Each structure stands twice: as structure tokens, then as C-alpha cells.
Amino acid sequence: MSDWNLTAAGERALRRISVLGTQRYEDKDTGGIRTVVISCATLIEAHVDGVIKQLFASDPAMQQPLTKTLHEEVEDSIYRTWESRRKWLTSAFDISIAGDRPWQEFEAVVALRNALVHGDGRLTDLQISKPKDLFALTEKLTRVLGVKMDGREVHLPPEVALKSAIISKEYLLHFDAALLGAHPEFGITPRHSFR
Q1: Alpha-carbon gap, residue 143 to 108, rounded angstroms
Q2: Which of 38, 68, 50 is nearest to 12 (CA)?
Q3: According to DSSP H, which parts of 21-158 are helical?
């Protein structure tokens, strides 16, 4: 049993991810496994995007016309990639989440989601565009999630669903801890025990 301090939105996302991680899948149920991977990555992305929007909205500088105008100009780019989210979180809000183990492992979930959604079960052209990065990506997908690779094609053994849920949960806990460390005004939910 562990006690975690989370934002209210973080707790909601954690509960959803925890439910996703309880289902057992057979080898041939790739649809169910895909759903878990895509759902975990999407829940985390929605949580982080919501936090970024709240951070901007609560910043007093956003009351200034120039700041509002500049924000409107760049707003879409903030949410376009995980790299841009990390840069904004670090530079604008002093929340550093890159480089730590939870982020590095969650990157594998994001990469797998991208292969499933944008590559229809194959690594995308963007993912294979740099040979050095391709080797690191396939190694990470195999080591972290247990994905089986056949060239560009990804095969999903049943354990990929559970690993994706666990990694997503760990990243969410890490993210909310970094958020609350830098911005305690976000508050926490009452202490709950999760098993």
C-alpha cells in the first residue's frame, strides 16, 4: 500500500489507468492491447495538456494584452509534441520532467502509441528517419515494453498492456510530484491508499 499526493485531475487519470492495467489479454487480442497502450498515452497527454493550460491561465502575466497575444500565436505549437511540452514546462513554469527514468520509460509508451496510431502497427517514417535513433527506439520498445519487432512492424505480446499501464502510472506520479513541487498552489487531493 502506498500513499500519493496528486492533483485532482492526476487522481482521476490514475484511476482510469489503473483500471486499464487490470485486464488480462491473450496473444491474439492485439485490439485490446492496442487500446490499453493508446488509452494510457492519451490519458497522460490530456492530463499534462490540462496542467499546462491551467498554468498559463493562472499566470498573472496572462492579464497583459501583449502576453495574451503572444500566447495565442504560439499556443498550438505548445501541444504539438512532447518535446515542446517539456520545453514549455521547464522554461516557463520550472517543471523539469525530462531525463528521469519515469519519463524515459514513458517515451516508449508514446513511441508505441505513435506507431500504432500513425503507422497502423508499424514504425512511422519519422520514427525510422535516423538510423541511430531507430536502433535506440527499437531497443527501448523491446526492453521497456516487451514489444517484438519484425522490421518496422510491432508485435504486441500480452504483457505490453500491463507494462504500459504501470509505466504510465509511474510517469503520472512523477509528473504530479514535479508539478506540486514547483507549484504547490495546485493543491493536492486528500491522501488515498491505492493498492
Answers
A1: 9
A2: 50
A3: 30-58, 65-78, 82-93, 101-118, 131-140
Instruction: Find residue 154's DSSP bridge partners.
Output: 149
The pLDDT tens digits of the residues spanning 93-148 come to 999 988 889 999 999 999 999 999 999 999 999 999 988 888 999 999 999 999 99
Pairwise CA distance, residues 60 & 69, whole Å: 14
Instruction: Give Cα 154 distance to the centre of its chain.
Output: 20
Q: How would DSSP label each residue in 31-50?
A: HHHHHHHHHHHHHHHHHHHH
pLDDT category, 155, cuts 50, 70, 90?
very high
- List the grid coordinates of 84: 515542446
Q: Which residue has the cell 511540452?
A: 85
Cα(139)–Cα(37) distance, integer angstroms: 18
Phi, psi of 154 (to 5 degrees): -100, 135
Per-residue pLDDT tens over the stretch 22-67: 888 887 888 999 999 999 999 999 999 999 999 998 888 888 888 8
Question: Using CA atoms, how far apart are residues 85 and 164, in angstroms rounded to an integer?
Answer: 21
